[in-house]
Amino acid sequence: PVQYCQCFVYAAVATSLSRALGVAARPVTNFQSAHDGEKNRAIEKFYDIAGAAWEPVTDGAPSHDSIWSFHVWTEMYFDRADVDCGALSLRSSCANGWQAVDATPQEESAGGGFQPLEALYRMGPASVALVKRGYGGDYDSEFVVSEVNADINLWTRSSKEE
């Protein structure tokens, strides 16, 4: 059995299945794609005074932040009635249109209200229009906001004691 797969394969399969079901879909490639394991919209890199990289340990584990050379996901075109655009002070159809859906399992899902799916690895649908405005929302949409718009923080320590 196949145990591992690349993101472009997941995206191609998701795009093909969506199109077979009659949903407009396209694969999207993001270059220099941030992978924000800490979910704070920041990729943090640490260096010592000599410029050598080091990895701090938080809660017994190293950071999972990284920048991938590329990442591919699927965008599907449909309306979203589940997003309350009024709460965001936006027009009523603010979330309609292209939706980012990432079939690549990367981080355990924060859920979306449906108990059997709480422990899955999933992302989306995330409204591309809202992602461009920096809104995350349900279905782990913060992850795609970070992929395309995370800050990169460079930290330097002056001595090994700090």
UniProtKB/TrEMBL annotation:
<protein>
    <recommendedName>
        <fullName>Transglutaminase-like domain-containing protein</fullName>
    </recommendedName>
</protein>
<dbReference type="InterPro" id="IPR036985">
    <property type="entry name" value="Transglutaminase-like_sf"/>
</dbReference>
<dbReference type="Pfam" id="PF01841">
    <property type="entry name" value="Transglut_core"/>
</dbReference>
<dbReference type="InterPro" id="IPR050779">
    <property type="entry name" value="Transglutaminase"/>
</dbReference>
<feature type="domain" description="Transglutaminase-like">
    <location>
        <begin position="1"/>
        <end position="105"/>
    </location>
</feature>
<dbReference type="GO" id="GO:0003810">
    <property type="term" value="F:protein-glutamine gamma-glutamyltransferase activity"/>
</dbReference>
<dbReference type="InterPro" id="IPR002931">
    <property type="entry name" value="Transglutaminase-like"/>
</dbReference>
<dbReference type="InterPro" id="IPR038765">
    <property type="entry name" value="Papain-like_cys_pep_sf"/>
</dbReference>
